[in-house]
Design a protein that fits this description.
The chain is mostly beta strands. The chain is 7% helix and 41% strand. Strands 1, 2, 3, 5, 7, 10 and 12 form a seven-stranded antiparallel sheet that branches. A five-stranded antiparallel sheet has the order 4-6-11-8-9. The longest helix is centred in the C-terminal third of the chain and has 9 residues. It is globular, with a radius of gyration of 17 Å.
């Protein structure tokens, strides 16, 4: 979702809604842009490592311990990938954008703590394809700087919202029309997260 001030954007698949009240006041628009790709890669055995989950109804993320770096070879590990088209969002001047969030429906989690420190890592959109990528071909992300960091609490069967405002503004300023990122838990922990993919029956 993107919150911005000014006239509505009407072209393309972006949905807009103007509100007359709320923290941003009159003239605020809430924009919804569906993601264009999401999947995860699984480190569990030869079958998992060579299976594509592009049509799965869930996306999973888990990194269990620092000793897995840089190749995350523990069979418990999962790596999540997301793509987003910025064409319509970029039509809004960066100075008018109030907030952008990556929202997802958390359908499961597990671990020894009630929260995890999560980070968004920017990667080349052309480095993976939703219908083809597997564990053995996924783009490397370990050691890359965080584009956004946030604590995610364990709230199963509920919506989560990850603030990516500065990340999106930077990409728009660079002239990008598509972005791709991976969600990582760092520092590593005995904690896993899953959420509904775009292929899920409900979101």
């Amino acid at each position: 979702y993107a919150n911005y001030l000014g006239d509505a954007v009407t072209a393309g698949p972006l949905e807009t809604q103007e509100v007359s009240s709320g923290p941003l006041g009159p003239g605020t628009h809430y924009l919804y842009q569906a993601i264009t790709g999401d999947t995860y890669c699984d480190a569990n055995g030869d079958d998992g490592r060579n299976t594509n989950y592009g049509n799965a109804a869930v996306v999973m993320q888990k990194r269990t311990k620092p000793s897995d770096a840089p190749d995350f070879q523990s069979s418990a590990n999962r790596r999540a990938f997301v793509k987003l088209d910025l064409t319509e969002i970029a039509a809004v001047a960066p100075t008018r954008i109030e907030a952008v969030t990556f929202d997802f429906y958390q359908n499961g989690s597990g671990g020894k703590t009630d929260s995890m420190q999560a980070k968004i890592v920017d990667i080349d959109p052309d480095s993976w394809n939703e219908s083809e990528v597997v564990w053995t071909t996924m783009p490397a992300t370990y050691g890359l700087p965080a584009a956004a960091v946030q604590t995610i609490t364990k709230r199963e069967k509920s919506y989560q919202s990850f603030d990516i405002t500065n990340y999106i503004k930077e990409k728009i300023a660079e002239g990008k029309t598509e972005i791709s990122f991976s969600l990582d838990n760092e520092p590593a922990s005995e904690w896993g997260l899953s959420w509904n993919s775009r292929e899920a029956a409900e979101n």
